[in-house]
Specification:
Largest sheet of chain B: 7 strands, mixed
Largest sheet of chain A: 6 strands, mixed
Structural class of chain A: mainly beta
Distance between the termini of chain A: 38 Å
Helix content of chain A: under 10%
Distance between the termini of chain B: 31 Å
Shape of chain A: globular
Helix content of chain B: under 10%
Order of helices and strands of chain A: EEEEEEEEEEE
Number of helices of chain B: 0
Radius of gyration of chain B: 13 Å
Number of strands of chain B: 11
Number of helices of chain A: 0
Oligomer: heterodimer
């Protein structure tokens, strides 16, 4: 049972444009959501997070939006840069546990 | 560099064998997590230790076990290995024991079972 889903395996955007990565979840107990970025041959790196009491969190070029009623979150990268090309994982957790449930990942390619 | 170290980087072994993967968390972090990433699956949570005690368990097989030592490093033991155990194994660490603590991941150990 896939509790966290990233339905787009890949996304390609032009440098300077917006990248939008999407994630859906099914478990209503999740109250904390994170995005991780992964380059080949490296471990995932934390990017940005959001608590369920918020609907938006911004950090520089990265913004995460949370729509609790739709059980949907998205990561916006503006403007996209070639160095952003990586696999992006969405993760969710209940704040009373340390267990992260990850989506399958979306491979982002930013073309110069 | 996340500050989390994992050894070995690569491991090739045969079916039926037993291996031990080692993880040293970031300085000051009390929680250690183990994740498995197979080719056809995303990152799957295996187990969490906090300050030496098991804190949470995921879909960890009975053939797998882990522990966290007094110096906070952790080992993941995989026994009676099968072809399907071939995967990337990541260790992560965090200061606290709850999910809203940022987890820092190591570079992973790539296990190949032949």
């Amino acid at each position: 049972d896939q509790q966290v889903k990233q339905n787009s395996p890949s996304l390609s955007v032009q440098e300077g444009r917006i990248s939008i990565l999407n994630c859906d979840y099914t478990n209503s107990m999740f109250d904390y959501f994170l995005w991780y970025k992964k380059y080949p041959a490296e471990g995932p790196t934390f990017l940005i997070s959001i608590s369920s009491i918020k609907d938006k969190n911004e950090d520089g070029r990265f913004t995460v939006f949370l729509n609790k009623s739709a059980k949907h979150l998205s990561l916006h990268i503006v403007p996209s840069q070639p160095g952003d090309s990586a696999v992006y994982f969405c993760a969710a957790t209940s704040s009373n546990t340390g267990k992260l449930i990850f989506g399958q990942g979306t491979t982002l390619q930013v073309k110069p | 560099d996340s500050g989390v170290t994992q050894t070995p980087k690569h491991l090739i072994t045969a079916t039926g064998q037993r291996v031990t993967l080692r993880c040293s968390p970031r300085s000051g972090d009390l929680s250690v997590y183990w994740y498995q990433q197979s080719l056809d699956q995303g990152l799957q949570f295996l187990i969490q230790y906090y300050n030496g005690e098991e804190r949470a368990k995921g879909n960890i097989l009975e053939r797998f076990s882990a522990q966290q030592f007094p110096d906070l490093h952790s080992e993941l033991n995989l026994s009676s290995l099968e072809l399907g155990d071939s995967a990337l194994y990541f260790c992560a660490s965090s200061v606290g024991r709850l999910g809203n603590n940022e987890q820092f991941f190591g570079p992973g150990t790539r296990l190949t079972v032949l």
